[in-house]
Amino acid sequence: MKGIAVRAGLVVVAAAIGALAASVGAHAVPVGAAAGLVCAALVLLVERVVARTPIERLAWGALGTVTGLFAGLAVAFAVLGTMPALGAGVLGLGTLLGAWLGGVVGARRAADMTGLNAMLFPRATPDRPVKLVDTSSLVDGRIADLAATGFIDGPLVIPEFVLRELQQIADATDPRKRTRGKRGFEVVQRLQRVPGLAVDVDGADVPDVKEVDEKLLALARVRGAKVITTDYNLNKRAEVVGVMVLNINDLATALKPAVVAGEPMRVHVLREGKESGQGVAYLDDGTMVVVDQGKRWIGQTVDVAVTSVLQTSAGRIIFTRLRDEELPRA
Question: How many CB atoms lie within 10 A of CB 165?
Answer without folding.
Answer: 21
